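U., I forgot to send this yesterday:
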Amino acid sequence: MIGAGARVSRRGLVVAAAVGVVGGCSGGEGSAKKKNAPARPVPGVAERAQAARDSGGLVTRYDAAIAAHPTLAGRLAPLRAEVAQHVQAFGGKVAAPPTGSTPTPTPTPPPTTPPDSPAQTLTALAAAERELADRRAKVLLTVPGDLARLLASAAAAGAGHVVLLNAKPKPA
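Result:
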């Protein structure tokens, strides 16, 4: 602490101001390195794109399951619609499907062939949802906050889908 009797000379003030100005204006070594350094990828961009592709692939699996087993359409349509919303939330494009009622992501991954029985199809969809939810949970700590929250939300929805897909249907 400066005592009450201590005085600062004009010369001291001028030197302090000059040091501050010169220090603030110089580029230093960091500026030269930044200009010549390759651009670093923006954190989370690749992960967001991968999440959109993953959700798009899952929508395709739902579409194939509904096409192969129309009796499952009522049960699978709401889950498929949520996954299509994930595609959009991750920045993917969703186009109108050929049938017109539910959106399909673009570009569409290669079609998958669902199992022969509806029960096996539900089990396969549940396994795909579980695997994707687990992968998303592992990525959470490596991405920026907003994307981590979005991935966590999609992973939680996927875990909920697993429960719904594994549930025995109630008799009508």
